[in-house]
Amino acid sequence: MTASSPLLVSGLRDLASEYDGILSDVWGVLHNGVSAFSAAHEALTAYRQEAGGAVVLITNAPRPNEPIREQLAHLGVPQTAFDDIVTSGDVTRELLATHPGAKVFHMGPERDLTLYDGLDVTLTGEDDADLIGCTGLFDDENETPDDYRDQLQRLAARGLPFVCANPDIVVERGDRLIWCAGALGRLYEDFGGPLSIVGKPHKPIYDSAKGRLARIKGAALDESRILAVGDGLPTDIRGADSQGLDVLFVTAGIHASDFGPADQPDEALIRRRLAEEGLSARAAIPRLVW
Predict the structure, then answer these.
(1) pTM for this entry
(2) How many domains, in total, are found in the chain?
(3) CB 12 within 8 A of CB 289
(4) Residue 211 domain-assigned (yes or no)
(5) N or C: which end of the chain has fewer CB within 10 A?
(6) One domain for residues 129 and 183
(7) Which residues does residue 107 pair with via DSSP β-bridges, in sequence order?
(8) Is 170 helix (H, G, I), strand (E, B) or coil?
């Protein structure tokens, strides 16, 4: 696409024939943590059923994909919208499996403890740990990363590996922004602690997702025929860009306030922000629709 070509498109239909597979973000594209966006899941359903494409959801959720399937169903996202899911939790489990017998200090809410199910690790307290598994803040409704500064500095001084299961810094929950594990990981690294991240924007989660697409379609897809869909510049857009994938940027997600009215974003502001970030997008759309 040239600089003079329109960036904003009216719907996924405008691009569908150019791609055999989609890697779609979940939170911010398909739902906001409270309710599903019906037009978005209808768009992915239409892409699968009318255009014959495959859809793998790719999310920085710090849990294995089965709880995410349950969450999507609860929110009202139907199975017709996707073929498979790969989570940051899935690829984090692969990393944790390379530390058999590890004593892990879990940092995050209890709902994320499924991350460790079936792994050869022992959950322990901070003092006995030789590895930190972080899925988020213990109480993300009320705490901020500043509440963790002393603890993270203490852990970093011991040189404990910090495995961050969700690279997101913040995420929308309804009409609020909630701090995520990535904010703690960034702070830990600032204190000199060793940090490992495998979710977006990093390569491992994309390799896994492209492998899922290949299994669905029966052969590896030409990467020029894969479209990534997402709303987060530092994760979705940067990650896809770094992997050489085309991107459909959903602008009314986490960065909605940056581009003017959410439903009528200013294309010049979108282009300028992408340029400032050193990123590119095949197209942009306020919200995912068919």
Answers:
(1) 0.87
(2) 2
(3) yes
(4) no
(5) N
(6) yes
(7) 134
(8) strand
180 and 123 fall within a common domain = yes
For residue 111, give every residue at least 6 positions away whose Cβ sits within 8 Å of its Cβ, in sequence order, or none: 63
At which of 147, 165, 197 does a domain end? Answer: 197
Q: What is the mean pLDDT of residues 248-252?
A: 96
From 132, 56, 141, select the one nearest 90 (Cα to Cα): 56
Query: What SS3 class is residue 102?
Result: strand
Q: Where residue 149 sits, what CATH number does that domain have?
A: 3.40.50.1000
Tell me the per-residue pLDDT of 214-234, one tens digit each, with 9 for 90 and over: 999 999 999 999 999 999 999
Say yes or no: 125 and 177 in one domain: yes
Give mean pLDDT, residues 92-113. Answer: 95
Share of the chain above pLDDT 90, in %: 88
Assigned domain for 214 exists: no
Q: Are strands 176-179 and 170-173 parallel, antiparallel or unpaired?
A: antiparallel
210 lies in some domain: no
Residues 72 and 98 reside in one and the same domain = no
> Is 133 a member of any domain?
yes
Burial class (CB in 10 A: 0-12, 13-18, 19+), 95: middle
Residues 77 and 25 in one domain: yes
Q: Is the pLDDT of residue 72 over 90?
A: yes
Domain membership of residue 258 as a residue range: 12-89+219-285
Q: What is the pLDDT of residues 23-65, one digit of tens each?
A: 999 999 999 888 999 999 999 999 999 999 999 999 999 999 9
Q: DSSP characters for 104-132? A: EEEES-GGGGGGGTT-SEEE--GGG-SEE
Q: To which H or E segment does residue 216 belong?
A: helix 203-217
**Residue 222 CB coordination number (10 Å):** 10
Q: Determine contact, residues 249/232, Cβ cutoff 8 Å.
A: no
